[in-house]
Structure formats: C-alpha cells, structure tokens
Amino acid sequence: MKIYDTTLRDGAQCSDVNLSVDDKLRIFDQLVDIGIHYIEGGWPGANPKDDEFFEKIKSQKIKIKGSKLSAFGCTRRSGQKAEEDILLKALVKSGTPVITVFGKTWDLHVSEALHVSLSENLEMIFDSIQYLKKHADEVFFDAEHFFDGYKANPKYALKVLKIAEQAGADCLVLCDTNGGTLPFTIAEILDILKGDLTADIGLHMHNDSESAVANCLIGAEKGVDQIQGTINGIGERCGNANLISVIANLELKMGIKCLPNGNLKKLKKLSGFVSEACNMAHFRRQPYVGSHAFAHKGGIHVSAVAKNPVTYEHVNPFLVGNNRKILVSDQAGKSNILDKTEAFGIKFDKKDSRVKKILEEVKILEHQGYAFEDAEASFDILVKKLTGKYKPSFELLSFNVTDYINPDDDKKPYSEATIRIKVGKKEYHTAALGSGPVNALYNALRKALLEFYPQLKKVKLLDYKVRVLPVTDIEATDSVVRVWIETTDGKEKWGTVGVSQNIIHASWEALVDSLEYYLARGKI
C-alpha cells in the first residue's frame, strides 16, 4: 500500500495549527525517515511560505531517500490555456517529481462554485493533467467531493475520472471532502467502479462523521492502491484520516505492508513530534500511540496483564514504539502497586505488608482528591516516604506570597514571593517576582535551590492545571483544588500533584514533588 501524507498542506489548514517553514522542514525530515512514500509539501504559488519551503528543498538538496515530494494545486482556470495558467506554472516550477491537482467531480460544485458548464470542467481537467504530465514523473488527480458527486450524479462523476485517466493521470484519488460518507457506502461505490478504470485508485478521507480511518481500511480491503491522510488526523474542521492509525491497522491487523522493515516502531515518536511541532497537546487516548493507549487501571486488568498482556491488549505496544502503563488509583489492586513500584526500582514480595499499606494510603489520598494516574513522580515520592527511603533535598522554613497592582502600568498585576529554605545546615532566604502567585513562588524556590543544586537549570515547567473538585455543603470558593504540574529536563517528562483548599499550598506540594523527584534520581 502506498501512503501519501498531506500533513504539510491539508493538515496545516487545521484551525489550531500555524507551521513555519522550519516546522515544515523538520516534519518533512521525520516523514522521510519513517518511509512515507509520498509527501505533499504544500501549494506553490498560493502563499510565500509554501514557495519558500519548495525553494529550500531544492537549494539545500535535502535527501529524500525512498520518499517522493509532491506539490499540490488546482486545475487551470476557465478561459485560459494550461501552459499560461499562473498556478499550473508554479506547480511545474516547484520541481517536484509528483504533482497532485484537484478538480471538481460534483456537478453542484461545477455549476455553483466554478460557474462553468459540465463539459468545460472536463476540458479544464484534461488540459491541466496533460500539461503537467510533460513536467512531472507522476500526476495524481484529486477528485474533489467524489463520493458526494457520485451519489448525486454517478454518470458525471465517473466521466470526470475517465477524462482524468485519458489525460494521463497515474492515480485517481477519490475524495470524501465533506467527510460524511460512511464505510458501507464507500464499499458499495468501490465495488461498482471495479473494472471501469485502469489507473491506480487512491482515497482521501475527511473525518466529519468519525469514519475516515474505517473508510480507508474498507478501501484497502477493496484493493485501492494509495491512501492519503495526515499525522494524528489534523486538518480542516474535524480533520483527515489519521495515518498513524491507518498504518498501524494495515500492518498489524490486515497484513498489508506500508513502511520499510523496522519502521513501524517509529510511529509513536512521529506522532509526538508532529504534535510538538504543531504546538498541540498530544492526545493521550489516541489509539496505538497515546500515553494511555495501553494504560491499565483496574486491579483485575493489571493482574491479568501481568500474567498475559493479550488478556487486555489488542496488540503489543512495543510494535508501534509505545509502552505499557500501569496506573495507580483508588481502583488499584496489589498488582498495580507491585508493577508500579518495580518500575521505580523498588521490588516487593506480594505478601509484603508494605504493599497493603501503600495501597490503603493511595485510596485514602484519592478520596481526598489526589490523582496519581498522571502524577507518577508524586507516587514515587509517596512510596519512598511510606517505606522510609525518602530523603528530602531541602526543608521549607517559610514562604510568603503577596499580590500587587501597579497603577503606573495600566493596573497590571504582579506577585512577589519570599522564601526561606534549609539545605543541610545552611539556610537561604530570597525573593522573586512572577506574573502570578504560583509563578512567583516557583521562581523564588528555584532561585534558592540553584545555589545548592545547579543541575536544576535544566528543569522547566511544561504544564500547570488546576481543577476545582466537586463540593456539596461548602461554598465553591472554599472548595478543594487539585493542582497538576508537568515538568521536564529536556529529555524526560514527569507529573506531580498537590491537593488543598489553598491553591498556593496545593501548587507548593506539586512543585516540591517535581523538584524532589528530579534531585532524588540524581539527574545531572
């Protein structure tokens, strides 16, 4: 199966995404590395960013290995010759070995969007493909709105494909542009088309009915030659077919080869890389590659997985570069505790009384509002405290946080935190400003600790979340809050949690756990 990635063009049209040229180049390198067959770089002539991308690919002579770069564009405009059309000439100028050009397949769009006759639309498609074939190794015809067009006027939709094929199109890409066609309809139409066409068939599915991946798999079962999509399914509206899931399903479930040998295990890394480049939080429950895709919480589940992972896992997570994750919560059993503590290098016998003690403490804390599912660093510290292995790196003597409003700066608020800590026999007293009380407290704590632990320069906070926990008989402003913090040293990430009726105190708990966890592991 040939995989065609359109993350850099169709994916970049996602409302939450704004890729720079450098972002596109970095993603392009990752797509090449994993072995994607076709990589669509953008629409030359449509915007300066895409023009710069294609110029840099040419000027820097970037190695593309087994992948092929494609440029994307539309058919010639009405009333113009193909060789005179500015956008078609821009496609040729890009110098890519593959060009994908889209044309109207739905008669509704021909009359109401293009305002041309059905016959003229066919001429525009034929002329454009014939012209582009003189300048590219392969030309793919993107049959926009094909499935809606086929349902409305099957004879005309098929005529569009035939004319593209006659013009020399190497692949006819059938698009579900509005994303509303369901799998059984896709199957019926593909069955009807069998034998009518000689060119390769591709699929380009949008996800507005949550059917994009399923539609691609149906297409693979029906024998299509190419599947298009984006990494993590990003794209306009509800997005595109998620190539991460498509590739994993094709290789692991259907036995259809998509990537070079050994590259399937790079899927999780690629998925995370694209999320970071797009400045988007990675979806934790994303199939195959999410951090929770193979997470086990219930004690019965954990016990069974420890004996045989097949009991609660549909595939081996390591095949796609992911890992099994055992969660600790109030639903945990001894198996959860044993598995998690072993991951932290602490081994207990099943009959060890400390296991029961840890389990009971977790359940008490979770009842109070703590959640250790994404706060494994706090759980590690809790276990060390309960087993007498916790050695604090510092002692808090006192802290004070004050909020101010500066009338000379448009009443902009700011905060100041003072802190006194003790490391060994030495005391340190310092202060720091921040955009808010928690930020000021963190700045002061970090400033104080750097005097003793310079390796903390590598540490920074990635995320900070506050949740007000449900209350019944007290005022909401007097309720308990849970603070979750994610921290990194540039290589690894870890989560910590704090709970209190005082948001600053809850934040303090999470901050201390975060830094103590790092220092306890001796990361330098």
Q: TL;DR of this structure?
A:
By secondary structure, the chain is α/β, with parallel strands linked by helices. The protein is built from 17 helices and 16 strands. It has an 8-stranded parallel β-barrel, surrounded by 8 helices. Strands 11-12-13 form a 3-stranded antiparallel β-sheet, with helices on one face.
Describe this structure in words.
With 524 residues, the chain is of the alpha/beta class. It has 3 domains: 2-260, Aldolase class I (TIM Barrel), CATH 3.20.20; 343-392 and 457-524, 2-Layer Sandwich (Double Stranded RNA Binding Domain); 394-452, Double Stranded RNA Binding Domain (2-Layer Sandwich), CATH 3.30.160. Helices cover 38% and strands 21% of the residues. It has helices at 21-34, 48-59, 86-93, 107-114, 118-133, 146-152, 154-167, 183-193, 212-221, 243-252, 267-277, 299-307, 334-343, 353-368, 376-386, 437-450, 503-520, and strands at residues 2-5, 38-42, 68-74, 98-104, 138-144, 171-176, 200-205, 226-229, 295-296, 325-326, 395-406, 412-423, 426-434, 460-468, 481-488, 493-500. The protein has an 8-stranded parallel barrel with strand order 1-2-3-4-5-6-7-8, surrounded by 8 helices. It has a 3-stranded antiparallel sheet with strand order 11-12-13, covered by helices on one side. The protein has a 3-stranded antiparallel sheet with strand order 14-15-16. Helix 8 (183-193) links the parallel strand 6 and strand 7 (200-205). The longest helix is centred in the last third of the chain and has 18 residues, at 503-520. The radius of gyration is 29 Å and the shape is elongated.
